Inverse folding.
């Protein structure tokens, strides 16, 4: 266990080196978000007062996007998938096959430490932004929702990591994984609810999307926070989310064990 | 005239080399086209979802906004074809000292550095943007005059000039900071607001900055408005033109200052 704590430490140090870069990225990322919010506000302004989009008021809509930014800061994979793919391509993983270090655990530690540093950094611009929108910002309705949100966000982080890890392992089979990662990311962006709340879609489509793991990455935790999922539905959702995390873990292990057989240790 | 011909033939030669290089990895070449097309489809889907809940955004109808998205996509792809890779590479050239090599050649260094590599695959996506513009015009039952089409093309050229100037300017900061890829990518990120109708933005600091300093809210809005006959005053065209000249002048000034204090690495 101590060796992995050490990895955590190294990850934190590495991330801190590029802190200005992170701050820039977080700040630049907010500008398109502000654009989207302006558009939503114009749409609501054109409607009769009290009219809803789906079941969202303007306030709920703005909170939704703020929370998406927050969950994203907590769970997004930054460079992890690229680094994993590069490790495989350049033959760097050979050393992990020789050492008593499990590569998945090692990467998970780096991911956690990256998030631990990135989140406070990203929170600076996000907090300023949230403050400008403070009229819309609400706390979760009750304690269950708060705890549910924390649990769902943690699970979302794990799921996100396993998905990114597995797709990066494609590097065992193809030379350049970046296109595959971008294609998967495009689906994730839409189906996880980053672009807009999924429940403003026709109900059958929303339900269909909930058969995939994607909504559990973002839309599900945010909905808990907003009090839109509660009671039995909340417990059921968390159970399904845990199931997806378990499947993601199994898939990651399986793909690794298949990939390692093809591994030719190029350049190592 | 002779100089111009020399530069055009140089440009064509660079383009041919890029095409040959790209074709070496055919599958990857095709996959990149798919990636770009997918993201474009995603934006259109978002607009579709927005308009399933409303009929207009600040007076813009669905197909007008889709035309705007097409125009924005077209410009963004043109930037990718001609400049994006080259400008993000600039900081690498500075870091390694390879820039010296370009400065020694008997051509304008800025020209060569900005045009060295073509992203040929993005041509397909630029055409896709144009196709969406035509599709939107058909749905709108609007037939632009020849003058409107010509004006649209010219204004797109001005938009390209603005994007290029700003990216080059931001990339030039690498002469001082050595690392500038992040800033150039950040600018690329701003393309996301260029496809939104300018009327959706209330007057304020945000709108002023992205109209008069980084004219994101003009570059695709003005040509689109001209094409569908929404332009309220010729003042907007004048503003876009003058900002184009201003940005280019500024970027050339920064480029010269930067080169003057370039000391080269490892030589």
């Amino acid at each position: 266990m101590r060796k992995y704590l050490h990895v955590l430490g190294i990850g934190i140090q590495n991330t801190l080196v590029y802190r200005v870069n992170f701050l820039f990225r977080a700040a630049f990322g907010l500008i398109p978000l502000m654009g989207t919010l302006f558009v939503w506000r114009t749409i609501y302004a054109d409607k009769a007062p009290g009219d809803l989009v789906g079941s969202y008021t303007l306030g709920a809509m703005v909170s939704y996007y703020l929370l998406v930014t927050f969950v994203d800061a907590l769970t997004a994979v930054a460079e992890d998938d690229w680094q994993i793919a590069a490790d495989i391509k350049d033959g760097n993983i050979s050393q992990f096959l020789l050492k008593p270090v499990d590569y998945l655990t090692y990467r998970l530690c780096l991911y956690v430490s990256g998030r631990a540093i990135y989140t406070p950094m990203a929170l600076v611009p996000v907090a300023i932004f949230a403050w400008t929108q403070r009229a819309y910002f609400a706390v979760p309705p009750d304690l269950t929702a708060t705890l549910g949100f924390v649990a769902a966000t943690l699970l979302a982080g794990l799921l996100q990591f396993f998905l990114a890890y597995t797709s990066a392992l494609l590097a065992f089979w193809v030379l350049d994984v970046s296109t595959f990662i971008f294609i998967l990311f495009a689906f994730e962006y839409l189906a996880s609810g980053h672009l807009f709340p999924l429940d403003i879609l026709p109900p059958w489509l929303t339900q269909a999307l909930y058969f995939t793991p994607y909504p559990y990455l973002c839309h599900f935790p945010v909905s808990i926070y907003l009090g839109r999922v509660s009671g039995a539905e909340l417990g059921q959702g968390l159970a399904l989310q845990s199931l997806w995390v378990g499947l993601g873990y199994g898939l990651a292990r399986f793909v690794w064990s298949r990939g390692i057989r093809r591994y030719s240790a190029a350049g190592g | 005239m002779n100089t111009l011909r020399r530069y055009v033939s140089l440009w064509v030669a660079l383009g041919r080399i890029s095409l040959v290089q790209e074709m070496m990895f055919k599958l990857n070449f095709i996959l990149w086209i798919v990636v770009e097309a997918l993201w474009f489809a995603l934006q259109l889907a978002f607009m579709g979802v927005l308009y399933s809940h409303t009929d207009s955004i600040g007076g813009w109808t669905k197909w007008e906004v889709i035309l705007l998205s097409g125009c924005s996509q077209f410009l963004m792809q043109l930037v990718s074809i001609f400049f994006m890779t080259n400008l993000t590479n600039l900081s690498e050239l500075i870091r390694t000292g390879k820039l010296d090599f370009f400065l020694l050649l008997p051509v304008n260094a800025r020209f060569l550095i900005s045009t060295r590599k073509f992203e040929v695959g993005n041509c397909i996506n630029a055409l896709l943007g144009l196709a969406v513009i035509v599709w939107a015009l058909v749905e709108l039952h609007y037939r632009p005059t020849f003058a409107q089409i010509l004006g649209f093309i010219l204004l797109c050229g001005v938009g390209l000039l603005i994007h290029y100037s700003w990216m080059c300017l931001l990339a030039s900061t690498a002469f001082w900071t050595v690392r500038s890829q992040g800033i150039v990518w950040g600018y690329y990120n701003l393309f996301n607001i260029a496809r939104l109708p300018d009327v959706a933005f209330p007057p304020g600091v945000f709108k002023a900055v992205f109209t008069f300093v980084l004219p994101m809210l003009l570059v695709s809005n003005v040509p689109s408005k001209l094409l569908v006959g929404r332009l309220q005053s010729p003042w907007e065209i004048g503003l876009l033109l003058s900002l184009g000249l201003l940005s280019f002048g500024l970027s050339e000034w920064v480029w010269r200052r930067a080169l003057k204090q370039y000391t080269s690495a490892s030589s």
About this structure: The first helix of chain B runs from residue 2 to 23. Chain B has a mean pLDDT of 88.
